[in-house]
# Entry
Amino acid sequence: MGYILRLLPSLLSGAATALVLFFVVLLCSIPLGFLFTLCLRSRVGAVRAAANVYVYIFRSTPLMLQLIIIYFGLPYLPVVGEFLKLERFSAAILGFILNYAAYFAEIFRGGLLGVDRGQYEAAQVLGLTKTQTTVRIIIPQMVRIALPSVGNEIITLLKDTSLLYAVSVPEIIKNAQIAVNRDANFTALGLALVIYMALNFVLTVVIKKLEGLMKWGE
Amino acid sequence: MIEVKSLKKSFGHLPVLKDVSFAVSRGDVIAIIGTSGSGKSTLLRCLIDLEKVDGGTVLVEGDPLVRDGAYPHHTQVRQITAKMGMVFQSFNLFPHMTVRQNLITPLRLVTKKPEEEAAGLCEQLLRKVELLDKIDEYPATLSGGQKQRVAIARALMLNPQIMLFDEPTSALDPQITAEVLKVMRDLAEEKMTMLVVTHEMGFARDVANRVLFMADGEIVESGSPGEIFGSPQDPRTVAFLRRELEG
# Structure
């Protein structure tokens, strides 16, 4: 027990780093993802094409590779490279946001497809403007349809924070491994497991609560 | 009140409305009947700008919704369609709002009426469709007939002068169409101007003062219910009525 207590500070500081990344990415990538959803459905062909290419690139390559390229690779670009030297943690946050926004864009697009066309028609004949229709009628229904998939992504995001390892930002696993190597004792990795499970337990409960709030009588 | 002249509409190469003309006077209850695919729903949807026409004119109280196939600025189109309310076959209530919110939210968004006034109107209309006890329910908990009555009340909130009904009972079980038809009958008695696309021949015969029979994108025959049901002239009308009334 005493050993576990001695391990905790470094593991919890790793968890704090992971949580900062988690919340910043969540807060940025969800609105950005919705913006990309609107681009994916734009009437302008060029905007649609650009959004599709973006989503394709970020979904078809490993997040780890994206992080490595953003942190190590971008500074080597000719001319602009010297302006793209990011601090490790910032590079990671940028990579995560761009990556998760691509996934959220597709999830929200699916959510929009699930909203019945009659909802747009009812809003129109009642005299609502396009903006009112989107904000008051369509988005709430899109969110409900997308919520299970968004919940999935959120849980994945928490676990993906371990990819901070790729750009050498100390997080939960890295700190656990240091302890394992130092003490020749696997307890730290077991503790890391427990920390992830505890955090995701909280997330799961919150997501279920949200789904419950959006039952709307069903 | 509404004048429709030479309305034309195609979906791709398929003409769905070929030169449709008719007029609606205040207080008219017009039943539009015909086989599926005859263009009757499309006609209704064109009148409230859910479909754009390819040619022809629609005047509402003298103002053009579309003149010779050309639409005015969209603010004018909105002004004109605001005089109409519409009820759909599939209800299209907003599932994330309670019955109360379904009625009040659109009114408040569109007219900026004060909250208390909207709330009062909401209760009054729900009483009229006999659903005041469901005011805080979500649509998902209502039966089809109840949903459609809420949809009618929602449309009435905006005080329309003309109500369009697009097969309002076609998605309902036969035993609950009556409760919706009763509400529509009450509206007709209050001299609401109504255009009703329907398969309910009983409603067309008893409540409408005029019946339009459509086939192949045209109004084949129109007249009083007595004329259409008593002595139909066109063989297509005769065949249709025989099928419907025997069916």
About this structure: Chain A has a mean pLDDT of 94. Residues 2-40 of chain A form the longest helix (39 residues). Chain A touches chain B through 21 residues (CB under 8 Å).
